[in-house]
């Protein structure tokens, strides 16, 4: 039986850049990440059609952006190979099918989420039983700074370079997100390199969390995405996306996610978010709904 895992979009509700590591130039971050119900899907079947090896097939509305790329560079396949190595599987076999619904290179961690979904799916398919163990988290961390958070796929406070995770304060039961991307890719290294100005302090968040979306938005308004000015300098349409999101009825806060160009509007609930999407330009990638609810 094939196993299927969702690869939900990561949304950085705030992202403070605290400093830069001397040893490798990676930036130290403080972020509150949540996962939207917008997701790629990763399916893993017992063996490839020809009976051997690891294979990856791509489909879905956003797959075209990856068509020219070597499948071996795809994060889902790299995750599969890394897991097989760690588990000592000499001749790993699985047929992976990745259905891309999230735009590529867009600040919502699509590739990282795919890698995490591949780890979860193959952990089940190969019967490793490593889910929620440090062993699987270590494989994730080697694949990318964002992959451990995507492996958790639940609200997390991200520290370190993104790989140090702590539970998020309790979030409102009713919360909506609108996501919008101008269909312009932004490369994460370029955005970090274009960042200027002083480093930020870590955020102070209430341990008791927030009961209402409006209260969360009020606290987030005092925080920032420190990569937003650099992303706008590299990709000016990001400012238009932010303005359009701020003008949506019910918008409580609009901000860029990750290194962009995807921006989000925080909404009172999923229905308000879904209803608002049609007001955005149809040339953009756009989505509205609630948070992803991980199984278990
Ligand atoms: C900025 C964030 C925020 O959540 O999101 P995205 O825009 O990718 O969604 C992440 O930190 C991205 O994580 P991820 O995309 O996994 O990064 P990696 O592949 O490890 O690194 C790509 C490049 O980004 C830069 N980088 C990444 C993470 C970090 N903490 N400091 C950095 O300076 C480095 O130049 C690195 O070479
Ligand atoms: N499964 C994948 N989905 C998206 N991008 C991938 C994938 N595998 C490798 N990549 C590469 O990773 C780069 C960053 O993509 P992505 O993870 O979507 O960015 P971001 O984390 O900024 O949203 C892409 O430009 C692409 O070349």
Automatic annotation (TrEMBL):
GHMP kinase C-terminal domain: which residues? 209-283
For this protein, the Enzyme Commission number is 2.7.1.148
The record lists the catalysed reaction(s) as: 4-CDP-2-C-methyl-D-erythritol + ATP = 4-CDP-2-C-methyl-D-erythritol 2-phosphate + ADP + H(+)
Query: Where are the catalytic residues?
Result: 10, 146
- Which residues are listed for ATP binding in this entry? 103-113
Pathway(s) served: Isoprenoid biosynthesis; isopentenyl diphosphate biosynthesis via DXP pathway; isopentenyl diphosphate from 1-deoxy-D-xylulose 5-phosphate: step 3/6
Describe the location of the GHMP kinase N-terminal domain by residue ranges: 74-152
Keyword hit for Transferase: yes
Entry keywords, A to Z: ATP-binding, Isoprene biosynthesis, Kinase, Nucleotide-binding, Transferase
- Tell me which domain of life the UniProt entry assigns to the organism this sequence originates from: Bacteria
GO MF, one term, reads: 4-(cytidine 5'-diphospho)-2-C-methyl-D-erythritol kinase activity
Q: Write out the similarity annotation.
A: Belongs to the GHMP kinase family. IspE subfamily.
Q: Which NCBIfam families match?
A: ispE, PRK14608.1
The record's function comment reads: Catalyzes the phosphorylation of the position 2 hydroxy group of 4-diphosphocytidyl-2C-methyl-D-erythritol.
Q: What is this protein called?
A: 4-diphosphocytidyl-2-C-methyl-D-erythritol kinase
Write down the species: Caldovatus aquaticus
Query: Highest lineage ranks of the organism?
Result: Bacteria, Pseudomonadati, Pseudomonadota, Alphaproteobacteria, Acetobacterales
């Amino acid at each position: 039986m094939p196993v299927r895992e969702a690869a939900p979009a990561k949304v950085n509700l705030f992202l403070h850049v605290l400093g830069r590591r001397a040893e490798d130039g990676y930036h130290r971050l403080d972020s509150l990440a949540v996962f939207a119900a917008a997701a790629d899907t990763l399916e893993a079947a017992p063996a490839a059609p020809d009976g051997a090896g690891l294979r990856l097939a791509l489909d879905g509305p956003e797959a075209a952006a990856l068509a020219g790329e070597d499948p071996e560079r795809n994060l889902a396949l790299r995750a599969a190979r890394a897991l097989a190595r760690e588990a000592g599987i000499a001749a790993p076999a699985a047929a992976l099918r990745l259905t891309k619904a999230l735009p590529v290179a867009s600040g919502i961690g699509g590739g990282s989420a795919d890698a995490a979904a591949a780890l979860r799916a193959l952990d089940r398919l190969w019967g490793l039983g490593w889910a929620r163990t440090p062993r699987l988290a270590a494989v994730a961390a080697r694949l990318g700074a964002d992959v451990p958070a995507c492996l958790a796929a639940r609200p997390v406070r991200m520290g370190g370079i993104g790989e140090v995770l702590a539970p998020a304060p309790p979030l409102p039961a009713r919360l909506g997100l609108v996501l919008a991307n101008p269909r312009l890719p932004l490369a994460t290294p370029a955005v970090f390199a274009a960042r200027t100005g002083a480093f930020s302090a870590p955020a102070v968040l209430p341990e008791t969390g927030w009961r209402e979306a409006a209260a969360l938005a009020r606290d987030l308004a005092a925080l920032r995405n420190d990569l937003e000015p650099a992303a706008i300098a590299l990709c000016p349409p990001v400012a238009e996306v932010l303005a359009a999101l701020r003008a949506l009825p019910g918008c409580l806060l609009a901000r860029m996610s990750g290194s962009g160009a995807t921006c989000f509007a925080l909404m009172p609930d999923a229905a308000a978010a879904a209803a608002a999407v049609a007001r955005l330009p149809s040339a953009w990638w756009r989505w509205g709904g609630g948070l992803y609810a991980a199984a278990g």
